[in-house]
Amino acid sequence: MKRKILIVEDNVGLSQMQKDWFAQVGYEAVTAMNEPIARSLIRKTQFDLILSDVRLPEGDGISLLEWLRKEKKDIPFIITTEYVSVPDVVRTIKLGAIDYLPKPVRKEHLLELAEDVFRPMVIVRKQEKKLFHRTSPKILQVEKYARLVAPSEMSVMILGANGTGKESVAQSIHQGSGRWNMPFVAVNCGTLPRELAASLFFGHEKGAFTGADTAKTGYFDMAKGGTLFLDEIGTMSYETQSMLLRVLQENTYTPIGSGKERIADVRIIAATNEDLQQAIKDGRFREDLYHRLCEFEIHQPSLAECAEDIIPLAEFFRERYSKELKRETYGFTDDAKRRMLAYPWPGNVRELQNKIKRSVLVSESPVLEIEGLNIEIHQHDNEPISITAIRPLKDESQEKIYIINALKACNGHREQAAAMLKINPATLYRKMKKYGLN
């Protein structure tokens, strides 16, 4: 069943564009121009997410959120506005909004946030998930570190942007460890309610608190003997961090309502896209917990840094979704391949996966074309702009990758590649010589 999203926005062009974005990745979106219409729709339909502007012709996003809480409708709520007001932001977060997005809202940011909302809070994997073997140098370095640390009991911190495949790295560490035949439990800390954290992690006995009609197993028990993967650890509340630290220090925990201690027999792997050093300086993350979680650190590179993996990954996803969706496909056109190599993939592997799935579904030809991939960038005034092969050369640490991508996208034509890079051909030739790309 498709996830249902309500967009409350009086700008018809913007709400339609956001509706199209959601539709492209398989969500069903409905729009409302004001608060009364939104309330009417919410009474009739079970929505999985609400995206609302603060300022509306009738009512506003904050009063809509207040009404939801009074009605005891626990629907994830994201607030958007052009006019940043710190008191409004604080108020919406206190009311339970999961995030605040300033306008213009970026497509990749919005879809990434929706995917995080819809990800299950916890997934238990008892069998090995099929992992695609990547061959780019930076990924091979990550795999090398994962193999080295896997047999130990060291806690591992995996750093990297959303959608890069941090959970896949965690799974490979689990599979290479002595715990490989025990559960791998992945917890999405971004959706972890602070007030329920203790019960969710440690479980509770029947009657331990109001509403505890039955005993419940916690994540530490689910992962007993195996690996507990804490994804998006940077979003965990300070109180929950303190609770987790105590367990890691003492290696024991007690389910709520029970007087009996249990041994915490799990290996901890954590992941985040946040700068934890900055979070520590800002007082948002405990330094002592960071050192407990980060006995060994692995950096997962972005897809843009691993251009060699783009086409093989695309083929892997094409074959998977051709089977799942029962669509016969054979590959990609040369133009589609060039465009995939040219695109910066801000949503990383997850974005590539979603776009290939869409292309398999909508393509009228067994050879997938660029149109089905829907690779384009939107400006905030709703005007689409065509993609350049890569970003202009500004960051020296990335420019070799960008040059390779541009040359691939232009079939080796240096003048075209220079134009895409927004540099002159002589500069491109000099940089190619510098990196041994002649």
TrEMBL record:
Sorted UniProt keywords: ATP-binding, Nucleotide-binding, Phosphoprotein, Transcription, Transcription regulation
Name of the protein in question: Putative alginate biosynthesis transcriptional regulatory protein AlgB
Domain of life: Bacteria
One MF annotation (Gene Ontology) recorded for this entry: sequence-specific DNA binding
Entry's transmembrane regions: none
Keyword Cytoplasm: no
UniProt cross-references to CDD domains, sorted A to Z: AAA (cd00009), REC (cd00156)
Species annotation: Paraprevotella xylaniphila YIT 11841
